[in-house]
Amino acid sequence: MAAAAAGGEGPGGDSDGGSEELVLTPAQLIRSLEQAWLNEKFAPELLESKPEIVECVVEQLDHMEANLKRAKRGDLKVSIHRMEIERIRYVLSSYLRCRLVKIEKFFPHVLEKEKSRAEGEPSILSPEEFAFAKEYMANTEIYLKNVALKHMPPNLQKVALLKSVPRPNLDSFVFLRVLERQENILVEPETDEQR
Amino acid sequence: MFISDCRREFYDVIVSQRVLLLVASDVDALCACKILQALFQCDHVQYTLVPVSGWQELETAFLEHKDQFKYFVLINCGANVDLLEILQPEEDTFFFVCDSHRPINVVNVYNDTQVKLLVKQDDDLDVPTYDDIFRDEEDEEEDSENESDGLEPSEKRRRFEEDVIERTMKRRQRREWEARRREILFDYEQYEYHGTSSAMVMFDLAWIMSKDLNDMLWWAIVGLTDQWVQDKITQMKYVTDIGILQRHVSRHNHRNEDEENSLSIDCMRIAFEYDLRLALYQHWSLYESLCNTSYTSASLKLWSVQGQKRLQEFLADMGLPLRQVKQKFNSMDMSLKENLREMIEESANKFGMKDLRIQTFSIHFGFKNKFSASDIVYATVSLMENIEKEGPETTNFIKALDSLSRGNLDKLHQGLDLAKKQLRAIQQTVASCICTNLVISQGPFLYCSLMEGTPDVKLFSKPVSLCLLSKYLLKSFVCSTKNKRCKLLPLVMAAPMDVERGTVIMVGIPPETESSDKKNFFGRAFEKAADSTNSRTLHNHFDMSIIELKTEDRSKFLDALISLLS
Amino acid sequence: MAGERAVGLVRELRGATGGNLPPFRAEGLRQALEEMRALYERNQADVSEAKSGRTDLIFLIRFRHCCLLRNQRCILAYLYDRLLRIRALRWEYGSVLPNTIQFHMSAEEVEWFSRYKKSLATYMRSVGGEEGLDLTQDIKPPKSLYIEVRCLRDYGEFEIDDGTTVLLKKNSQHFLPRWKCEQLIRQGVLEHILL
């Protein structure tokens, strides 16, 4: 991966606020971004948020841009590195977009899950995503109330969003890639009751 | 000024800049444009492409874009006029002109800074030397007055007389120089002709940079073939240029000889062909092609009954049954197609057609797709001058440009169909003109005018179509007439252009002779005739021998032209 | 038949395929709400009757209640689905919607849209470095740095970078950086030419 050569000075990968200080090389960083991206794309529900990866990748991109600004114009390496920047930016955007789509689609469940999260459990929403989700929910609730609900009969003016908005289908099929050899994983055969 | 090192003085200069491409509306320009676009995309040169069909569009495009670009590349336009005078650019604007129009305007040649000409030096250019046309303004007034102070009166008068004599001599010298200058310039600019195809120049640039591809080579071939189809270059130049391209073709396409390393059938390959000079014959029937190619039609005089009989004899001589010959070429019996070229050549010799075969190239990719270079030229011309679609002219340009890419076969096939219609229309018009004696001799030239209401006359309101018609008509006329003097005359042809605005399009073409040097004097002649009669003319086209004229002014314009050329 | 109005709204929306946004049926909504009010009032009347002995009305009351619930569900579905389509418009057209589409939106929908826009903008700004990361760009994986585009209609001047502008006139062709053209390609001003 060219990312290893492009950034050059400094491994940009300090994990933020985690208890383990993990120093990733740029190549490892991009690989973990790609892995998070693929997982997010294939999973039906919103997965754990990875703010450290996002932040480090953004830092890495800024770093590469700054390097390129200093480079000589017309150099072949410039085009290749710029292409790399665009690819990484695409992966990052796609990852964040995928998450936003899920947040908007399942907004009551996502917020509920976050509210009932136990201490020490990793969060599925970054602080910014949490703010966004709350705004989205408020925006939609206010709209529905003003346009329809408040004109309805008194006993129907509330609607349970948790029940109305569909929840992610945790029974949908997903692709798996085995990373390490594991023993004794039981995949239960489909019974008649399961769809 | 002429650029000697195309790579360093042109390409390396613009590779890090943004460039505006102004491309004329002819096939050679389109091909050159494609090659240059391919190079630019390879090197990430940001550019904008604007098609222009005449001087007005060129000026408009320049005015619109001059604030955003400093580097302009003009393809097949701009060499034959004083560019800086017309466009009035800022001092930091640069023009790179790759144009096959000749003669190159002397101001463009001798401008050191802003106008750079991408022209091959071995084109016989005959540019007048600098001193013959430019002269620094000398101070005519000698400072003799100062000298004459402090002198005695008699000496003063003598000095005064000497000064007068000197000044008179200088003035006479100056007048002589100016007369000679006018003569030189007149000789230089009198005849228009064409130099090396711009597509070939661009290909050369690509080759120098080792970035040439087979695709680009094909475009160069099409550009050259366009010059040949439109009769813009001499036979000798054509053969020379074919030789040059042949070397490149062998270099790119030799892999098929080696059985082991030959390319897949889907890869594009170019082959040299000593092919029949019959237009579109592989996409038509042999019969149609024979009828609609100017060479055969004129030689056999196919507009007359005897001509038709001669055609039958010709086919019989070759042993080709009519039924076979009238069906699509691809469906003809293989046994007949095998030695077709040699057979036709042999029979053609008997019937007075010695040049039925011509050196050219063809392109193959996949099993179905085989095209000769002239096929592509005809198809692209028809697409560019397509009258069927409404909309701005640039749409046709874009379509024609697209059809040159191998991925757009549907557009190419559409072009081929349009080309067949066009060729048929040309032949029918030629036949009717000859039969109704529409071509009349005006003294110094032949004249033919198409009336409104003639079938397909709309097709001929476009410059290239009208030129093709004129050339075919002249060829046929020369074969049909018995008047020896008329055979050597040039032709002026007129057709209605825009009925609402009452304009006519007029072209002048040089005489049809064996060793014609294709030099055309009608450009200047039209200008002078228009001036002297105050006719309302529009010399918008890059070829000066094509003009627009108000219908009412036509007769007085013609009269002036006749008296000018007698 | 009770509930026709509301179901009609939903049906019309379902017929608008491809994410199209048909005009907002304010009248239809009002009538559905009106119907709900009428049903409720009749129910109120009947409940007091039932309380004073007429138990045969209970089924009718229950039936009307079901109609009310159905109406509520249809109305909310109609409004919510429209919100989802409007949300998609932000991602497709950008933050300024064409007039033709705005005509089809109610005032409250426009309000919802502008709040959504703002919320999204805040989120995007918080994500990537100093300038934020525009997630509405880079929708497709980048294939090359520069692309050939053709102008489909007169657009005027367009700025590319560091002040240089390009004049976009119909049928002119340009070779420009890919990421600059994305927006205009989506709007239908430019067409990507493949060679």
TrEMBL record, chain A:
GO biological process: DNA-templated DNA replication; double-strand break repair via break-induced replication
Principal location: nucleus
Localization terms from the record: Nucleus
CDD domains registered for this protein in UniProt: GINS_A_Sld5 (cd11711)
Alphabetized UniProt keyword annotations: DNA replication, Nucleus
Biased composition (Gly residues): 7-16
Pfam assignment, any one: Sld5
Keyword Cell membrane among record annotations: no
Domain GINS subunit span(s) in chain numbering: 76-147
Annotated Gene Ontology cellular component terms: GINS complex
InterPro entries the UniProt entry points to: GINS_A, GINS_bundle-like_dom_sf, GINS_Sld5, Sld5_GINS_A
Chain spans, region Disordered: 1-20
Family: Belongs to the GINS4/SLD5 family.
Known role: Required for initiation of chromosomal DNA replication. Core component of CDC45-MCM-GINS (CMG) helicase, the molecular machine that unwinds template DNA during replication, and around which the replisome is built.
Name listed for the protein in its UniProt record: DNA replication complex GINS protein SLD5
Organism, scientific name: Strix occidentalis caurina (northern spotted owl)
TrEMBL record, chain B:
Entries under InterPro entries matching the protein: CDC45
Swiss-Prot/TrEMBL keywords: Cell cycle, DNA replication, Nucleus
Subcellular location: Nucleus
Domain of life: Eukaryota
GO molecular function: chromatin binding; DNA replication origin binding; single-stranded DNA binding
GO biological process: DNA replication initiation; double-strand break repair via break-induced replication; mitotic DNA replication preinitiation complex assembly
Residue spans of biased composition, Acidic residues class: 135-152
Family note: Belongs to the CDC45 family.
Protein name, as recorded: Cell division cycle 45
Organism of this sequence: Strix occidentalis caurina
Organism phylogeny: Eukaryota, Metazoa, Chordata, Craniata, Vertebrata
From TrEMBL, chain C:
Keywords on record: Chromosome, DNA replication, Nucleus
Gene3D superfamilies in the cross-refs: 1.20.58.1030
Highest taxon listed in the record's lineage: Eukaryota
Subcellular location(s) per record: Chromosome; Nucleus
Annotated InterPro entries: GINS_A (IPR021151), GINS_bundle-like_dom_sf (IPR036224), GINS_Psf1 (IPR005339), PSF1_C (IPR056783)
Predominant subcellular localization, coarse grouping: nucleus
GO BP terms, alphabetized: DNA strand elongation involved in mitotic DNA replication
Residues in GINS subunit domain copies: 47-127
Pfam families in UniProt: PSF1_C, Sld5
GO cellular component: GINS complex
Segments forming domain DNA replication complex GINS protein PSF1 C-terminal: 143-194
Family: Belongs to the GINS1/PSF1 family.
Assembly mode: Component of the GINS complex.
Cited function: Required for correct functioning of the GINS complex, a complex that plays an essential role in the initiation of DNA replication, and progression of DNA replication forks. GINS complex seems to bind preferentially to single-stranded DNA. Required for correct functioning of the GINS complex, a complex that plays an essential role in the initiation of DNA replication, and progression of DNA replication forks. GINS complex is a core component of CDC45-MCM-GINS (CMG) helicase, the molecular machine that unwinds template DNA during replication, and around which the replisome is built.
Name listed for the protein in its UniProt record: DNA replication complex GINS protein PSF1
Source species of the chain: Strix occidentalis caurina
